[in-house]
Write a structure and sequence with these properties.
- 4 copies of one chain form a homotetramer.
- Chain A is mainly α and about 220 residues long.
- The first copy, chain A, is elongated.
- At the A-B interface, α6, α7, α8 and α9 of A face α2, α6, α7, α8 and α9 of B.
- The structure holds a DNA duplex (21 and 21 nucleotides).
Chain lengths: ~220, ~220, ~220, ~220
DNA sequence: TATGAATGAGAATTCATTCAT
DNA sequence: GATGAATGAATTCTCATTCAT
């Protein structure tokens, strides 16, 4: 995990209400969980990454599972506020005269960058969603509707501005856009092949194009 | 995991070359891994699910990791042959006079049904890809190019038939289609809300529509 | 273990009262125990070496320990009769006109050859003696006095013939001769360096010399 | 293993660089290995003998085999320094005017006492040498040449002082002396018959006599 | 009788959690 | 508060032994 991410997570997610040690443990846990997965990560790993004694962890978190819960809760709040609300506000603020394509480009570039940074937690979240029913319920039933709902607000604005189709349910559009971004990011993360700037932009172009225009021949 | 899936896996994936007990262990491993994830699953869990003694597992698989490898190998073969090759052959065989929309509908319905059944293994595969570099390399570098390549052949046929745009790289189209199906299936699997037949069909319609036509307003 | 040894053990130790399968298991156990030691040897190893099924072993021997006991019992009889009694009889028969040095040479050469062949069982026996009190008691208290006693008879003959000192207790001479042979053989067995014929003979010469004349300067 | 031995091992072999618990585990391992042999000894046995939890063992030693290696390494150093080097130094320091016999007597008495105490490790070492090629190679190829070489230095001094024969290769003399001591000690350890002080001294006398003068009649 | 699949008790090892310092 | 040694329950894996075929 990059230095930058640690700082970023530290500032944006944990922010105000953590002491130095607690923050270091939290950040270390995010790092180790994202590298090894929750089960394979040991509290010793976390302690070493945090530069504290193993026992110290349990002063701040009752159990190992507690660390995970703390991460997931903090992150789901962050995901909602920073990933869904703020961009919409930005759209309202900045997109008055811009083309839809440009707006989407700016936003998605920004989101991609953010999602990329946030990948460590996303990976943990994903694997927990895959196997742990309680986490799945807690997150999916809470998070998805809220984000979807926010997206709907945003999408309705786009409709009103005549930039996107009004005959599609926003929730389904959200799913498709989300899917495209998810797999795009995953490919970037997981593949060993690294893009040049040009390839990256070209790939983005195709992504936007497909999302906006679909793959069918236009009459 | 549904009864049906077990039978399905038994018939389609493992089929001929497994004795009763080996099959039971394999199926139980698929079930337990898919419920708990590889790390959280214990060989005791698997033995209990298979109705055999714990030691019996190790007559058939050298190590716990060996069970996973066996599943992944068997599954990746199956994924390639049954999920990628066969549908393309069917397309060539059956789609001569059909509309593209109908063809996609048939295929995706079929694929969705299959992916749905195959979810237990996909979940394990996914979580392994998230955290284990060796599995990631083994599968991504082997599987993705082969499936992508097969899709390209198929996509080129569609281009020749004038049904899809020829100005998009097939690999990027594949990613987008794959992403849409993936998240669509994931939603069906992970969400507790169950669709009626009509809602399901309507959702499909939107999916096709978005894939084919995009979300932008058509001039 | 050499082919020869197997035949040798087969003919001399097991001989009459074993069926083909029992003999094969016994011989295989000797081989495997001598290679790995009793504890590290598995019944599967033995079964494979014997070319029988694992279960078959337990038709002939109640337990794994039973195989060891059988080997030790059979071997201790053999050791007593073939290693201690027969050579002494030969000495009486053949050494009438020979020099002591020649007699010792012949005997020790022969004994060395035999001990060498018999090493597989000796190694097992040794390690059992080291750690298992019951085996230790059974063997040492039974075997050592009998062999020592036989040696005493032999040694007294040598004394009467005026070839060896009469002022040394035979039991202590036996211990010293036995010690020299034991370590000599062990070195041959365990060291990776292999002698040429000349080196071997020269080494023997020194051994005889030391046993007979000691290391002190003679006045 | 006697209390005395534990203390002795603690002070002389392990001595300075072990914490209380590590020492207890090490000593317990020596005790248990020497009683049962490496393979038959369980980590549970060792933990119980040491009065610690089983898991604690693995804080100090990575694996069970690691305990053995640690013992063997510490012991082989000890064997080299305390059993080979120090006696030679003592000879140089104290034997100026003494008879060879007296010198040997003093030293061997002292060495015997030490070897006797050290028997627990020797037994483990012996059984490992019997069956484990890696241990055999590590020890025989490393230890034997070093000790032999030291003995040669010592023996050459004896030759210069005109006390022993100069026509015998030191390595063969060493083997013979070593053999006599080894079996002498083994007999003391393994036999249930215990000597009185007089019998012990008398036995020593014979041992010295045989080593020095051999068993042949002197002309 | 011979087999070898199945067993399950027990082995080494790991690791979250506790607690004396 | 912070530490890290100690714990012991839990885990993976082994293997002597049994038993249906």
């Amino acid at each position: 995990m990059s230095e930058y991410l640690l700082i970023f997570l530290g500032d944006c997610i944990l922010g105000e209400n953590m002491t130095g040690r607690e923050k270091r443990i939290f950040d270390a846990a995010v790092e180790v969980f994202s590298k090894k997965g929750y089960d394979a990560a040991t509290t010793k790993d976390i302690a070493e990454a945090a530069g504290v004694a193993e026992g110290t962890i349990f002063r701040y978190y009752k159990t190992k599972k507690g660390i995970l819960h703390s991460i997931l809760i903090k992150f789901s709040d962050f995901l909602f506020i920073d990933m869904a609300l703020k961009p919409i506000e930005e759209i309202f603020a900045n997109s008055k005269e811009k083309e839809l394509k440009q707006v989407l480009h700016d936003i998605i570039m920004d989101r991609i960058a953010m999602v990329d940074k946030v990948y460590p937690v996303v990976s943990v979240l994903l694997s927990e969603i895959l196997f742990k029913e309680d986490v799945r319920d807690a997150l999916l039933q809470k998070l998805v509707p809220r984000i979807t709902h926010s997206f709907e607000d945003f999408y309705n604005v786009l409709i009103k501005r005549g930039l996107v189709r009004s005959d599609l349910p926003a929730s389904r559009v959200f799913r498709s856009v989300f899917a495209n971004i998810l797999v795009f990011v995953a490919q970037n993360k997981l593949s060993r092949v690294k893009y040049t700037r040009e390839e990256f932009e070209s790939d983005f172009e195709s992504l936007f194009d497909i999302i906006l225009n679909g793959i069918a021949v236009k009459e």
